[in-house]
Amino acid sequence: MTHRVAIVGGGASGLASIKCCLDEGLEPVCFESSNDIGGLWRFKENPEPDRASIYFSVIINSSKEMMCLSDSPIHAHFPNYMHNSLIDVLLFFSILLAKLNTKVLQVKQKSDFSHSGEWVVETEQGCGHHCYLNMPLHDFPGIETFQGKYFHSRDYKTPEEWRNKKVIVIGIGNSGAEIGVELSRVTKQVYLSTRRGAWILNRLGDNGIPIDLELMLLHFVWLFLKFRIMRFMVEN
């Protein structure tokens, strides 16, 4: 008997879960509240209100070497860090296994759970995942009289609206840094504001190896050396 597995959400984690279930001979059913899979990787020029959204130029933070499926390597001619529009190469196996526009309301054990081990998934059609924007406007005295425009990065899509204008980007996370760089090509001046300093790393190392892969290898080397050092200290 094949076991059915409910997966809530068709974003990156949900799609990886589908793949793992298929590898183990399980029957996954993915419930996705929006009308498409891909989660934050899926660009929409006009996103639904209160739904998480990305800008057009978003580059996926993980390299293709780190994010590819174990038995489906991404094409060699694709860039190490892919544009969000290339996400379809990772989704081909999952679209038929997803129930779109389906929100999971609750998951509970069946009355005979002690014998069957089964769960009941209660769903609702036509609902979406909501995000809550972090805009602490109270930290900016005088914002109510500001004559310019201010908004969350969720509402940023392309730089053309800001051509030849002065812009300040607050925050030096992935979104803030990428948006700041993109705006610098068309604006009169861009300021990038951050509460503390930050290390800025290239996506690729000196030898062309993706930095996330390089850091992972260094991490394993450090764990190996730490184990050898500890063993040496204990034995001596």
Structure write-up:
Its cofactor is FAD. Its EC number is 1.-.-.-. InterPro entries: FAD/NAD-bd_sf (IPR036188), Flavin_mOase (IPR000960), Flavin_mOase-like (IPR020946), FMO-like (IPR050346). Belongs to the FMO family. α4 links the parallel β6 and β7. The N and C termini lie far apart (55 Å). The protein is globular. The protein is built from five helices and seven strands. The chain has three domains: 4-125, 3-Layer(bba) Sandwich (FAD/NAD(P)-binding domain), CATH 3.50.50; 147-193, no CATH class; 201-236, no CATH class. The longest helix is centred in the C-terminal third of the chain and has 25 residues, at 211-235. The strands form three sheets. A three-stranded parallel beta sheet has the order 1-2-3, with helices on one face. It has a two-stranded antiparallel ribbon with strand order 4-5. With 236 residues, the protein is an alpha/beta fold.
Summarize the structure.
By secondary structure, the protein is an alpha/beta fold.
Tell the overall outline.
Answer: globular
Class by SSE composition: alpha/beta
Give the terminus-to-terminus CA distance.
Answer: 55 Å
Mean pLDDT: 82
Which sequence of SSEs, written as H and E, runs from N to C? EHEHEEHEEHEH
CATH class designation of the largest domain: Alpha Beta
Instruction: Assign the CATH topology of the largest domain.
Output: FAD/NAD(P)-binding domain
Q: Can you tell me the residue ranges where pLDDT is under 50 for at least 5 consecutive residues?
A: none
What is the strand tally?
Answer: 7
Helical content (DSSP H or I, runs of 4+): 10-25%
**CATH superfamily of the largest domain, called what?**
FAD/NAD(P)-binding domain
Largest sheet: 3 strands, parallel
Radius of gyration: 23 Å
- Number of continuous helical runs: 5
